[in-house]
Design brief:
Elements (H helix, E strand, L loop, with lengths): L2 H19 L2 H6 L5 E5 L3 H13 L4 E6 L3 E3 L4 H5 L9 E3 L1 H5 L4 E4 L2 E5 L4 E4 L4 E3 L2 E4 L3 E3 L23 H12 L5 E6 L9 H16 L4 E6 L7 H12 L3 E4 L7 E5 L4 E4 L4 E4 L2 E4 L3 E3 L1 H5 L9 E2 L13 E3 L4 E2 L7 H19 L9 E10 L2 E12 L2 E4 L5 E2 L6 H23 L1
Parallel strand pairs: 1-2, 1-9, 2-5, 9-20, 11-12, 11-17, 12-13, 19-21
Antiparallel strand pairs: 3-4, 6-7, 7-8, 10-18, 14-15, 15-16, 22-23, 23-24, 23-25
């Protein structure tokens, strides 16, 4: 990003914050007894719960999340590369409960009744809500490729929901012999964290270069291009030579079948055959299962929402944020979910007070490590226009091509700073 565009980005992001800050105090005062239930304690849900309570402390806010701890998907590739530990990407809910007054319930929502405005959990509880914010993340579409099912995730980990799967894939990489082949099957658009598969290849290469330098990484891609492609490929050439190979869909990357027993992926009607020592299949994706079960996806895979408020266009009173929703130009990322959580929090408060929604600007930043000292980034600013969320022309951008090493090193420092800042904003 040039200095000019970086200033433009920061300016626009600041305007977004000012827009959010205006007008909610009166709204909050007039809806003191409302109960807001938030489903899902990831980046979007935890942000929404915290900020509803922060902006309207009189309201009752309940966050329902099945896990006692949460591992961020962003940063999990660093664990795979041996550059971080699981403890480094673990978040907890203590601050939300004790500092912000959110009622955190460790349970799983199994049913949503939009007519009665209730949610039911696996533990048998039924809760009434005045407004419901859903942030259920993603679910996988395993049936899209023959030969592999969810039951095969132990042998062929996806590692696209951080946690045990991350640990499992790291162990497989550690056990792989020097000279082995690590195959990543990348999904088609849209999917969670668009630069993620390519940062994963980078971090695996960083590990292999030190521990097993004769190894190879092959990315079989169901797309023709990917996020920050030129920057990634230049970084791969600079640091890893020919260790990483990328095949787009038109050149044999479109995987059509997987043989789990032999860890082999097939493409081009069987003419493409790729045997792996470690196979990482990242399945195509859709909205989280509770969103589908609640009818929030309609006839599609993702949840349509009003881009101004993130209220569902199918069920009134339910707001859908994060990876599950269709958010116009915004990518499915942790930073997007964080911004959407704040917009939804304000929209819910104003809605309960009978006030018209405000129009907010939002932003997204995504850093990727190619080595621990070489990072690249992409940033965007978004506005609500004509019923949709669109990119603001001239704001944001990507890291400059051909930047010297100190710039890449500085971006690596920014990467860690960004992570510390955003998890503090969400769970701190």
């Amino acid at each position: 990003m040039t200095d000019l565009t970086r200033r433009s980005f920061l300016k626009a992001a600041g305007i977004g914050g000012m827009t959010l800050a205006a007008g909610w105090t009166a709204a909050a005062r007039s809806s003191e007894k409302a109960h807001v239930v938030v489903v899902g304690g990831g980046s979007g849900g935890a942000t929404a719960a915290k900020y509803v309570k922060r902006f309207a402390p009189e309201m009752q806010v309940t966050l329902i999340e099945p896990k006692a701890t949460y591992h961020t998907c962003y940063g999990s590739n660093w664990v795979l590369g041996g550059h971080a530990t699981m403890d480094d990407i673990e978040q907890t809910y203590g601050a939300l409960k004790e500092r912000h007054g959110v009622n955190v319930v460790q349970d799983t929502v199994t049913e949503v009744d939009p007519e009665r405005r209730t949610v039911t959990t696996a533990g048998g509880a039924t809760m009434n809500y005045d407004r419901l914010i859903m942030s259920p993340g993603i679910d996988f579409r395993y049936g899209a490729v023959p030969g592999i099912t969810e039951a095969d995730a132990e042998r062929v980990p996806h590692a696209w929901k951080a946690g045990e799967q991350t640990v499992l894939l790291r162990r497989q990489l550690e056990a792989m012999p020097d000279g082995g082949v690590f195959v990543i099957v990348a999904p088609g658009n849209p999917f969670r964290c668009p630069p993620g598969p390519y940062e994963r290849a980078s971090m695996a290469a960083h590990y292999f270069k030190q521990a097993k330098p004769r190894s190879k990484i092959l990315i079989l891609d169901n797309k023709e291009n990917f996020s920050k492609q030129g920057l990634f490929m230049a970084g791969w050439d600079e640091h890893y030579g020919d260790m990483i190979e990328w095949l787009p869909s038109s050149e044999g990357g479109q995987v059509e079948e997987i043989d789990v027993a032999t860890l082999t992926a097939y493409s081009d009607g069987g003419f493409g055959e790729f045997k792996a020592d470690v196979l990482n299949y990242i399945p195509p994706q859709q909205a989280g299962v509770i969103a589908q079960r609640s009818g929030l996806t309609g006839d599609g895979l993702w949840c349509p929402v009003d881009g101004k408020t993130f209220e569902s266009t199918i069920h009134a009173g339910i707001y859908v944020i994060g990876d599950s929703c269709v958010a116009g130009a915004m990518p499915k990322s942790g930073h997007s979910a964080n911004n959407q959580g704040k917009v939804a929090a304000v929209a819910v408060i104003r809605d309960l007070a009978g006030l018209e929604p405000e129009t907010a600007s939002t932003a997204n930043t995504c850093y990727s490590l190619i080595t621990p000292d070489h990072a690249i980034s992409v940033a965007g600013v978004y506005a609500y226009q004509d019923g949709d969320i669109v990119s603001v022309e001239g704001a944001g951008g990507v890291s400059p091509a051909h930047a010297p090493a100190p710039i890449r090193r500085m971006e690596a420092i920014y990467t860690k700073g960004w992570y510390t800042g955003i998890v503090g904003d969400i769970w701190g």
